[in-house]
Amino acid sequence: MPSPTEIVQSLYAAFGRGDIAAVLDLLTDDVQWEHKGSSGAAYLRTARGRADVARWFGEVAELDEVQAFEPREFLAGTDHVTVLGWERTRARPAGGVFETDWMHVFTLRDGRVCRFVGLYDTAAALAARRAA
Questions:
Q1: What SS3 state is found at 34?
Q2: What is the mean pLDDT of residues 4-25?
Q3: Residue 93, preceding peptide bond in cis (omega within 30° of 0)
Q4: How far apart are CA 75 and CA 82, in angstroms?
Q5: What value does the mean pLDDT take over residues 90-101?
Q6: How far apart are CA 108 and CA 49, in angstroms?
Q7: Which of 102, 101, 105 is CA-nearest to residue 81?
Q8: What average pLDDT does the segment 22-45 reach?
């Protein structure tokens, strides 16, 4: 079985290809997917189950055009992986661009992601969404 880090790296590779179906295949049926923040976007919520996570990715695609996405550091335990990264994104429809460091925490069960928590600079994203 692949290590937790290898599974998470596979998930990022699928995301990078735009293959959301492959991302969903790496999740448990009862996955809890949380993206936390103080303000800004509809996807700052908790999605439950693969179908809701698929909707979550649709919400992200409606609001954000990711221009660069870089997982930079993987910190692994026996059943979890914390990833530190960076991205540059154009906010739709306003067109403002923001850059942010982010942190993603994945918990795995039986070789699949059962929980995800994501954090990023929501103030920078909100300013980009308000750009004229």
A1: strand
A2: 97
A3: yes
A4: 5
A5: 92
A6: 14
A7: 105
A8: 91
